[in-house]
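so i finally got all the pieces together for this one. its two components total, 223 residues if u count the protein bits. some of the lines might not be protein, just check the labels. i wanna see the whole assembly predicted at once instead of chain by chain like last time, that was a mess tbh
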Amino acid sequence: QKEVEQDPGPLSVPEGAIVSLNCTYSNSAFQYFMWYRQYSRKGPELLMYTYSSGNKEDGRFTAQVDKSSKYISLFIRDSQPSDSATYLCAMRTNTGNQFYFGTGTSLTVIP
Amino acid sequence: NAGVTQTPKFQVLKTGQSMTLQCAQDMNHEYMSWYRQDPGMGLRLIHYSVGAGITDQGEVPNGYNVSRSTTEDFPLRLLSAAPSQTSVYFCASRRGHNYEQYFGPGTRLTVT
């Protein structure tokens, strides 16, 4: 079983829709959770960085962590064509130096 | 700040050749890492460093060497390239243990 599971999609939504992206994980010791956006042929760009459980909001983006279910989510409100990219989740433990990444979900927002 | 920079952007090697992928950061970050990204596999850690002179292996270290003589630079050496090393390589850095990680633009490597 992989440490982090992420549905690869692809996901296609109309402009203005609310997008929900998710990852599940198996290691209950994960404490730091991240979401990255990766445009085609570019490096991953950090979107959200959270510690432990709860919600974090930044503009149109909201990250949620449910440690009891080992489930994290990224919500994108009022989605734009410029949001079309692959979204990667990542996580690590308090003490570990290794980040564990999901395989990414490909999102297309149709104008 | 330029952030994390990587050279070259693209490289084609023949099996058995060696080369060095360059990575530099100008943010005075302590931690630096090398990842490879393959379809369906996600990003996998090759080697990492927690400061100048200190390196350690990640998940997939075989066939790669690293050293860190300065805070700014963290080169990745392929000793004898194999087709299985065809991938996109990303360098990343972060200020310290509990800080967020930032990635460079990547190097696309093809080994024939």
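Chain B has a mean pLDDT of 95.
DSSP finds no helices and eleven strands in chain B.
anyway lmk what u think
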